[in-house]
Model the fold of this input.
Amino acid sequence: MIGPTGVGKTTTLAKLAAECMLQQKKSVAFITTDTYRIAAIDQLKTYAKILDAPIEVCYNIEDFKEAKQKLQHFDHVYIDTAGRNFRNLQYVKDLQSIIDFDQEMETFLVLAATSKLEDMLAVYEQFSLLHVDKLIITKLDETATKGALLDLMVKTKKGIAYTTHGQNVPDDIQHSTSERIIDEILR
Done:
């Protein structure tokens, strides 16, 4: 999970992990590189404890490689990253110095539906230096206008994998389909 500050990356990560574990009966683990935000590690540790899942904290690429090796036997390893000001390109480059974005990884850019289209496109542009596979749109319950989602998908040529509709873990997340996105936009 990558993205700017305040979009709900950590909560969304917990929702996905809980869904994977509870509904699909898969084993999950966590890696966090969010050593920047106060209490970020504690927040993810709380989710990990509830799910009885291991968590590794990484401060650099060596830590990340060790954690990845240590957790390789899990079905899914969810990686949380620090949200930073996307306008500062150095913050995006810092992610490359901590995480080995390789072929075994699926990278989701998390964006808030409450953002303006121009801002979401600017975020995408900055984070596209990293490989972005799909989008996750959060906070759909906090906005009345959702037409920007269609423009976002067309302009980025990226699909929306999941949407979130509240704070409840694991309930307030949906796997996206074209029908669901159209329904959200037209609702």
